[in-house]
Amino acid sequence: MTTSTPTTATIPVIYPDSQEYPATEPISVVAERPPWRHTFIALSVPNFRIWTSGNLVAMTATWMQKIAQDWLVLELTGSATKVGITVALQFAPMLMFGLFGGVIVDRFSKRTLMMITQSCFALLSLGLAVLTLTGDVTAYMVWGIAFLTGLVTVIDNPARQVIVTELVGQKNLRNAISINSSVFQLGGMIGPAIAGALLLAVGAGWAFLVNGLACALVVFMLTRLRTSQMTRQAPSPREPGQLRAGLRYAWAKPTIIWPVFLIAVFAVFGLTMPVILASYADTVFKVGAGGYGLFNSMIAVGALTGALLSTRRANIRLRTVVIGVGLTGVLQAFASFMPSVAPFATVLIAVGMSSLLMQTASNSLVQMSSNIAVRGRVMSLYVLVLLGGQAVGGPLMGWLVSTFGVHFGMLVSGGMPALAAAFAGVMLARRGHLTVHLRMRHHVPLPTIEHRLV
Fold first, then answer.
1. From the CB of residue 171, how many other CB atoms can be counted at a distance below 10 Å?
2. What is the dihedral of CA 166, 358, 376, 109, to 10 degrees?
3. Residue 8, in any domain of the structure
4. Which of 147, 141, 144 is nearest to 93 (CA)?
5. Paired residues of 438 in beta bridges
6. According to a count of CB atoms within 10 Å of the terminal CB, is the N or C end of the chain lower?
7. Is the pLDDT of residue 27 over 80?
């Protein structure tokens, strides 16, 4: 018996006229859904298996630290606004220096850079663990370590994005991105639950200790990668104007700049959930640290489902991102009307699934639309708006929650991304990149949106 493989086509990508960068490879579009046996095909690459195993432990521990850090600040200060300040300080360095991180990532070995950044993360987490376990910690100390962690993230995050291409190559890149998202969300499902238990039993310090040890494990796993099997890109030479060239490249491509715009709005409003969920757990449903961990786990359950579904996606287009941002915003706004814990947690699962499908599509489209020689700078722009937006949104949402109430904050967190998606859809339609068609099915007109890739 013979087996069939999915047929593929390619969509040509128009790229900016430039002597610096050759044409981007055509974006692969799968005409049929991949067979189930290819759901995790990127794991057939030994280096990616090593990376993924270490990453799963690291992501679980990172989520533990994130939940414990936010709750610790809430315990120390009793203020949702100051939880927002914590989020802002952790992401502010990306807002200030993120683009320069991309230049560094394009210039040096991604593996070496990550070994350095993960070692720094380990030292910072272990230091916070010591301060917390000895009872000497203050909110100002947490803020200082959060800011230093953010500085390291300026280099770590774009390096983390780009190294995946070196591990699996262009062919399995989309599948690898989906698996990475699955690992991140699996960690987000397990980590908050463990953090909630630790917070109730022994306090936040142990969560910080576990994260420090996990970062050290990542450094060890990076030493185990077989460099001879990596698809290495020659580092970009040091020359003036690299940052401007990367920005010009991104600006000229709708498949890069529109996802960046939508992710920026979503990051400011939609990704500041820790501030909102902490207030829901503390003041609305009064379920404490355990409930806060539960709410984050519900989002992660939905996100893990979305990540697994994203490995089955036949193709990714600009409309996928536009519709995904709009749908996620509507679901998040809908959560503000939930009257009790059970329906609220149920809607959070839907929010997590929709959000992850949208973010995976956006990440994949931006990476596949950018030439490998400039991908570090393009992804640093993407990460800049993704994390830097949260630096702006953290205190903003904290102020909205403190001033107008948590229900209003949740409504705004979803409503603004939905409006941004509507704006993007209208602008793209006016420029001819999106068109709406009515198709009859069972005598019922069903609207569909099509777009032209440029």
1. 13
2. -40
3. no
4. 147
5. 447
6. N
7. no
Tokens of 436: 């709406």
Query: CA 452, CA 240: separation in Å to the nearest integer?
Result: 35
Q: Pull the structure tokens for residue 48.
A: 């990616």
Radius of gyration of the chain (CA): 21
- What is the Cα–Cα distance from 25 to 36, expressed in whole angstroms? 26
3 has a pLDDT exceeding 50: no
SS3 40: coil
Predicted local distance difference test score (pLDDT) of residue 40: 73
Torsions phi, psi of 436, nearest 5?
-105, 130
* Continuous segment of H or E residues that includes residue 140: helix 139-168
Domain that holds residue 152: 44-232+241-451
What is the model's pLDDT at position 430? Answer: 82
Under DSSP, is residue 286 helix (H, G, I), strand (E, B) or coil?
A: coil
Tokens 């149920």 belong to 346
Q: Which two tokens stand for residue 77?
A: 């200060």
Residue 274 lies in a domain: yes
Higher pLDDT residue, 161 or 225? 225
SS3 state at 9: strand
